[in-house]
Amino acid sequence: MQLAYLEPRRLLPPRPLPFCPRPLPGEAVESWIWRIGREFGYSPAKFLRAIGRPGADPKDPGHALTKVDVSYFATLARLPPNELATMQTIPAPWRLRAVRDQPFCAQCWLEDQRLHGFAYVRGSWMHAGRISCPRHGSWLYSVRDRLGSKHCDPADRSAHGIPAKALEAVITGEANLESNPRCSWIPEAGACLKSLEAAVVGATAGRTPPEEEWGPIGAREFLNVVHDVTNWSLQNFEQFRAPCPANVHYADWAPFLPPLFRFSCATLPPRSESQPERSLRLRVDPDERRNALWMAHGLLATAHPPMPSAGPGVDRQARQRQIFRGQNPASLSWLVARMQRWPDAYREACWVSWEEMLLPWHSHRAGLVS
Q1: Distance CA 192, CA 199 (A)
Q2: In the 8-state DSSP scheme, what is residue 126?
Q3: pLDDT for res 177
Q4: Angle, nearest 10°, between helix axes 219-233 and 286-300?
Q5: Are 9 and 50 in contact (CB under 8 A)?
Q6: N or C: which terminus of the chain has fewer CB atoms within 10 Å of its end residue's CB?
Q7: Shortest CA distance to 176 belongs to which of 143, 139, 212, 149?
Q8: CA distance 359 to 370
Q9: Residue 228: is its pLDDT beyond 70?
């Protein structure tokens, strides 16, 4: 039922709306706001403006629920505040800017259509460090890439649904990856990605990452390190069009990894101070984020699987020397500048010195000594 004749802006803030759908289990805030606005004939952006809560980004009208908003929306929706307080809240630097694409779990959306009649976005999927479904453990994928761009529109999903065969094909394809006896992929690849995912998601909730795996570093500092390393891996620091380090790194590993990553030969324009950084939150496609997180795991983790043809594994600092070898000096200078903000104890315990990163002769001498 459309209630377009009722103007939310004319209702006083303490007064509840005449009708408001309840949040679905695990539903993202922006999905719930879209459903509320639909009852009044409004888009999410127009609805938020109408009730005095406009989004800060005009191209991304999704809303991040804050403590102030919990009480406000609870009154509008006639809900107890503790029910809204359980909705997924993600810090702004780690919340995906999902404008033209969305991540999805095929199993969740298949169940949604059977139980609720339409597929909705989960709040947990909107975390930039989240690449798997916390409910099923299955991998997240890009809606545009796997299902088509029209299914990014919640109105289309609500009106027409998603073909069950398309969702089942995604589920079957992933099951075949796990059970294929002929694959020569590194078996620990998925576990490595999920360990970094768990550390990042836990750190945004204030939990310190395990020191034995990630070194002596607190939650907030760990997020800064992951943010800087993944930003570095997604930039093009050359003076000409070229792929980013994460894609080049994955191309070397591609024969040994399952096809869960973004194999892309596309080149990027040179990095410019006038352009926004290519952070994880701007890379909505989980495949592309897996590229950056795989490289980050090699740089940050205590243990990382070696290439099958490279012999036994090496320690963290030896892997860092291998990854930095041949990198553009401008890119290493950028990363060294960011490293100055990291804790000294962590840098000294877990990272090669800046001299080894920037001075080839020093790195060569350190390699001979080791």
Answers
A1: 11
A2: G
A3: 79
A4: 110
A5: yes
A6: N
A7: 139
A8: 17
A9: yes
Specify which residues 103 forms β-bridges with: 142
The answer to whether 350 and 212 are in contact (CB under 8 A) is no
Of the candidates 137, 203, 159, 145, the residue with the CA atom closest to the CA atom of residue 38: 159
Cα 30 off chain centre by = 16
Q: Is 344 helix (H, G, I), strand (E, B) or coil?
A: helix
> Does residue 360 carry a pLDDT above 80?
no
Shortest CA distance to 31 belongs to which of 107, 113, 124, 110? 124
Burial of 80 (0-12, 13-18, 19+ CB in 10 A): exposed
Classify residue 330 as exposed, middle or buried by CB count within 10 Å of its CB (0-12, 13-18, 19+).
middle
Contact 127, 96 (CB under 8 A): yes
**Which percentage of the chain shows pLDDT scores above 70?**
85
Evaluate whether 299 touches 194 at the Cβ level (below 8 Å): no
Quick check: pTM over 0.90? no
With tokens 């990630």, the residue in question is: 214
DSSP H helix total and E strand total for the chain: 18, 2
Composition of the chain by helix, strand, coil, percent to 5: 50, 5, 45
| pLDDT attached to residue 53 | 63
Do 138 and 297 form a contact (C-beta atoms < 8 A)? no
Digit-coded pLDDT (tens) for 290-328:
999 999 999 999 999 988 776 666 889 999 999 998 898
Is there a contact between 297 and 180 (Cβ–Cβ < 8 Å)? no
Is residue 183 over pLDDT 70?
no
Q: How many CA atoms lie within 13 A of 63 on its CB side?
A: 29
